[in-house]
Amino acid sequence: MDAWAIFEAAILGLLEGLTEFLPVSSTGHLLLAGHFLGFESTGRTFEVLIQLGAILAILSVYFGRLWKLLTDLPRDAGARRFAAGILLAFLPAAVIGAFAHSYIKEVLFETPMLVCSMLIVGGFILLWVDRLPLRPRYNDVTQYPLKMCFAIGAVQCLAMIPGVSRSGSTIVGALLMGSDKRSAAEFSFFLAMPTMAGAFAYDLYKNHALLSSNDMAQIGIGFVAAFISGVIVVRYLLDYVSRHGFALFAWWRLIVGSAGMAALLVWG
């Protein structure tokens, strides 16, 4: 593996960790960056498998809370309801993702103009939602009703279209269903763990025979970079959105989507 391949893997890994938990679409950013860098991974596995670094970033930051949740499950009805809510929210993506896996990887992942369009549309939606006079009814993720959890999970399935954003769709869905901004982002963190772990395991199962030692080395570099940048984002995102909302991310989507679209029209 040459120096350029190492550089590409590190840059894309950092980009994954920085954008995975922001409502800006990490997959969309990776696909656009890879397109303009000329980066092509075997079976588009790199873009999915380096998410493991982002998963471990959440686990490292939330380990104490997750451990308490696990130990409370046998005796705490609230803990059991929260765990059930996360599993219910994960179910729609698990089912649709398994059936649509090939179409997503072979068609949607190969359409950079679609990514740019979804970034722009999502930016306008974030600006609209951020300015709505919403009155939150829930400020604690453990108190979300089960039917609300399932509905957020259904909305998350929109993120199978690259450029939509998994965190963006879940956050917007939660806000419109009555959550405050901080708990909406926090629920998105918790839901990310089974969703991304499931995507990682399924993609590895489908494509492991295609991967070479160079592929695995690139994925390892991207994984480490995604973990480091993901930890930074997870530690500071909740406080930021509590104070400032999502307008910054909306404008970022509009800028990146518009710039990407213009570049595609000029250079292809």
TrEMBL record:
Location (main, coarse): membrane
Regions that span the bilayer: 49-70, 82-100, 112-132, 184-205, 217-238, 250-267
An example molecular function term from Gene Ontology annotations: undecaprenyl-diphosphatase activity
Lipid bilayer topology: Multi-pass membrane protein
GO biological process terms on file: cell wall organization; peptidoglycan biosynthetic process; regulation of cell shape; response to antibiotic
Recorded superkingdom: Bacteria
Pfam families: BacA
Catalysed transformations (reactions): di-trans,octa-cis-undecaprenyl diphosphate + H2O = di-trans,octa-cis-undecaprenyl phosphate + phosphate + H(+)
Miscellaneous comment text of the record: Bacitracin is thought to be involved in the inhibition of peptidoglycan synthesis by sequestering undecaprenyl diphosphate, thereby reducing the pool of lipid carrier available.
Protein's UniProt name: Undecaprenyl-diphosphatase
Annotated source species: Pseudochrobactrum asaccharolyticum
Gene responsible for this protein: uppP
